């Protein structure tokens, strides 16, 4: 990595051969005053990748693309719209390399029920840190995630390099994130998100901040939160958490 990145021009790109976590590296760069605008942090090998809800992201042998897109925040951004816009940007980017992808709420990209990409969005100082992990070159996974993970190579995509995927991601995610400041653009994004959602109109188990709930996902609200109808017919809105798509009996 890479001369190809020069074609990105701006934003500024920081490349490390090895780092613990590109999100953590982004925080260090911000604290050191090295970032003052939109930026991209990436690496050949990530050793301590962090996931949502305290999970980790395994970069097995440097086969995943690990990148953090740093977005300078405006004063009145609709930050609650960010996870959905990011998910759609990543979905768009990866759809250039593989078909039949979908988004599991809030922002996992899956194919055939297996995870291709995960996203960790954090707010830090006046920046959004959009951490994206994509399994690109993996031909196999460790036993503990073998049944739940896939990669672009396994999916038979035209063997894109990590650089190819990075360039597409940067283009699509920064472009998609622009939608959060426009009501009209965000409404259109929400319609597209629903169309590729693997969660809408399914019986799911939701692991939210307030505990676990099971029910039917009736819809997403105007910022992409789940509207869940539980088994007693009560409706609730869930804004953070994870879902399990296993059919609930
Ligand atoms: C998840 O699925 O729980 C989110 C995984 C996010 C992983 C990416 S890899 C690049 C960036 N740096 C990190 O430490 N995490 C994100």
How would you sum up this structure in a few lines?
Helix content is 23%, strand content 35%.
Q: Which structural traits does this protein have?
A:
alpha+beta, 7-stranded mixed sheet, globular, binds biotin
Description of the structure:
There is one protein chain. The model has no long low-confidence stretch (mean pLDDT 91). The protein is of the alpha+beta class and 249 residues long. It has a seven-stranded mixed β-sheet with strand order 1-2-5-9-8-7-6, with helices on both faces. A five-stranded antiparallel β-sheet has the order 13-12-11-10-14, with no helix packed on it. Strands 3-4 form a two-stranded antiparallel ribbon. The protein is built from five helices and 14 strands. The longest helix has 16 residues, at 162-177. It binds biotin (BTN). The site of biotin has 19 residues, from helix 1, strand 3, strand 5, strand 8 and strand 9.
């Amino acid at each position: 990595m890479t001369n190809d990145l020069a074609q990105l021009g701006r934003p500024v790109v920081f490349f490390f051969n090895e780092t613990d976590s590109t999100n953590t590296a982004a925080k260090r760069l911000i604290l050191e005053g090295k970032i003052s605008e939109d930026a991209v942090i990436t690496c050949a090998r990530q050793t301590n990748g962090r996931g949502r809800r305290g999970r980790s992201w395994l970069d097995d042998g440097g086969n995943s693309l690990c990148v953090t897109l740093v977005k300078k925040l405006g004063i009145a951004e609709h930050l609650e719209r960010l996870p959905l816009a990011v998910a759609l940007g990543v979905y768009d980017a990866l759809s250039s390399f593989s078909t039949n992808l979908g988004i599991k709420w809030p922002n996992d990209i899956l194919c055939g029920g297996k995870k291709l990409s995960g996203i960790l969005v954090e707010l830090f100082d006046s920046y959004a840190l959009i951490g994206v992990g994509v399994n690109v070159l993996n031909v196999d996974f460790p036993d503990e995630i073998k049944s739940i993970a896939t990669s672009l190579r396994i999916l038979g995509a035209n063997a894109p390099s990590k650089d190819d995927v990075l360039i597409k991601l940067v283009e699509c995610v920064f472009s998609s994130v622009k939608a959060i400041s426009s009501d009209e653009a965000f409404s259109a994004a929400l319609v597209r998100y629903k169309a590729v959602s693997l969660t809408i109109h399914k019986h799911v188990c939701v692991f939210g901040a307030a505990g676990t709930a099971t029910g039917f996902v009736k819809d997403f609200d105007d910022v992409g939160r789940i509207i869940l109808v539980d088994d007693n017919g009560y409706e609730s809105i869930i804004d953070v958490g994870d879902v399990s798509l296993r059919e609930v009996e």
